[in-house]
Write a structure and sequence with these properties.
The chain is about 50% helix and about 15% strand. By secondary structure, the protein is of the alpha+beta class.
C-alpha cells in the first residue's frame, strides 16, 4: 500500500478472517494559501479500489494492533475507525509519519549495525515488496494488482530493471527452442 492508503485504512476495510484488505481511499495533505494544511481523504492514486491479500503473520499483527487500540478506547476499533489513526482516532499526518519512520530506523541501525540495515524511506518498503516479488518471478499482473497500478505496463516500466531474465538467458532459451523445433 502507498503511505496515504495505509493512513486512510478503516477497520471495515480489513477482513482478518479472510486475510484481505480493501484499499479504497488515500489520505493526503492539502495546503491552501493563507489557511494552512489539512488532511483529506481522496480516491486511490489509480482511482480504483483493490483488494490485497495478506499473510497469516500480518493477520496476527493486525489483530494485536486492534486489541491494543481497543484497550485505549473502544471508539478506536469501531468499523469506521482509522486503523493507523492517532490516539484520538484522527488521521496521522502523512509527512510526519514518513519522518517518524526515518527517525525510528536510526536506533535500529545502531543496534543491528549500519551495514546490516540500509537507510530507507517508508516508500522504499513498497518498492522492496514489488522487487522481491518480481525477482521471485511472481507474474507482473499480480504484482501490479497488489501495488494498485493502473496497468501492468506501469509496473513493467517502473520495475524493468529488476524483472527476471537477461539477454544471455533469452538468447539461450531461443536457441534451445529452435533446436527443439528442428529436431522434431
Amino acid at each position: 500500500m502507498r503511505r496515504g492508503e495505509a493512513l486512510a485504512l478503516r477497520w471495515r476495510d480489513v477482513d482478518l478472517e479472510a486475510g484481505a484488505i480493501g484499499v479504497r481511499r488515500s489520505a493526503g495533505m492539502v495546503r491552501v494559501a493563507g489557511e494552512g494544511a489539512s488532511i483529506v481523504e481522496t480516491d486511490t492514486k489509480s482511482g480504483k479500489p483493490r483488494v490485497v491479500d495478506i499473510d497469516p503473520a500480518t493477520v496476527v499483527v493486525l489483530k494485536a494492533h486492534r486489541k491494543a487500540r481497543g484497550s485505549l478506547a473502544l471508539q478506536l476499533v469501531r468499523e469506521d475507525s482509522i486503523v493507523f489513526g492517532d490516539a484520538e482516532g484522527r488521521h496521522r499526518n502523512p509527512e510526519h509519519t514518513s519522518r517518524q519512520f526515518v527517525g525510528d530506523l536510526a536506533p535500529c541501525r545502531r543496534v543491528l549495525g549500519a551495514e546490516t540495515l540500509p537507510v530507507i524511506r517508508l516508500h522504499d518498503l513498497r518498492h522492496t515488496h514489488a522487487t522481491v516479488l518480481l525477482t521471485a518471478r511472481e507474474p507482473v499482473h499480480v504484482v501490479s494488482q497488489r501495488l494498485g497500478h493502473a496497468s501492468p505496463v506501469v509496473t513493467m516500466t517502473v520495475y524493468a530493471h529488476v524483472l527476471p531474465g537477461s539477454q544471455r538467458e533469452a538468447a539461450e532459451l531461443f536457441a534451445r527452442l529452435i533446436r527443439g523445433a528442428s529436431e522434431a
